[in-house]
Amino acid sequence: MKIKLVAVHAVLITGIGLLAGCGGGGEGPIVPPPPTPAEYAEKHMPSDWWGNAEKVEQGRKIYMGEANPDVNCSSCHGKDGKPVKAGATDFRNGERMKLYSDSAWFWRISEGVPDTRMKGWKSKLSEEDIWKLVLFERTFALSGKVWNEEKKQWVDAGTIAVASTETR
Ligand code: HEC
Fold first, then answer.
1. Distance between alpha carbon 166 and the CA centroid of its chain, in Å?
2. Which of 6, 56, 68, 153 is such that its CA lies 20 to 30 A from the CA of 146?
């Protein structure tokens, strides 16, 4: 009898987990992404890329499908970050997107989101390409911001110098 109860419980928890998973995209409550796996948590945007307009432009081309016809993020996420396919994450939602560290963002593009239409892109894109995509996608809601690993949050690009001296 006890075993049966445990089984029922497991099914319930899985059910809730799946529901929460659906809400992770464009609609539903804003929930932070799961913790970034260890093999990705140490990866960060090359620090001199944040203000690099050329890299942003290269990211835009990949996102729009102009660099590689096999990779077209805008076909689901929309050219202006407004999703055109149901359930795709809305990059214009700053409240949601600011919960993604640069590493989390990179991880999700590389590996995708299980059981959703968001597949992993690492077989089609180099690490550099994926960082360019993060750089471009952030312009929809976090324009001018950079991820600060010490503060664990997005900060205005202009405050970087201040932020790093503060903690010394
Ligand atoms: C076939 C449609 C489709 C394409 C093409 C697509 N995505 Fe997605 N993407 C989705 C969906 C659906 C989700 C929401 C998954 C979920 O429920 O969490 C998503 C979620 C995401 C997320 C948030 C991940 C998370 O943790 O919720 C990022 C970042 C992202 N996509 C980036 C990209 C990039 C970059 C590309 C192009 C290389 C791309 N996507 C191409 C459908 C797509």
1. 28
2. 68
| The two structure tokens encoding residue 113 | 């989101």
Residue identifier of the C-alpha nearest atom 17 of ligand 1? 25
> Residues enclosing ligand 1, CB less than 6 A?
21, 24-25, 33, 71, 73, 75-77, 85, 87-89, 105, 108-109, 113, 116-118, 121, 133
Amino acid at 96: R
How many C-beta neighbours within 10 Å does residue 146 have?
21
pLDDT digit string (tens) for the chain, length 168 residues: 455 544 444 444 444 444 444 445 556 789 999 999 999 999 999 999 999 999 999 999 999 999 999 999 999 999 999 999 999 999 999 999 999 999 999 999 999 999 999 999 999 999 999 999 999 999 999 999 999 999 999 999 986 554 444 444
How far out from the chain centre does Cα 66 lie?
21
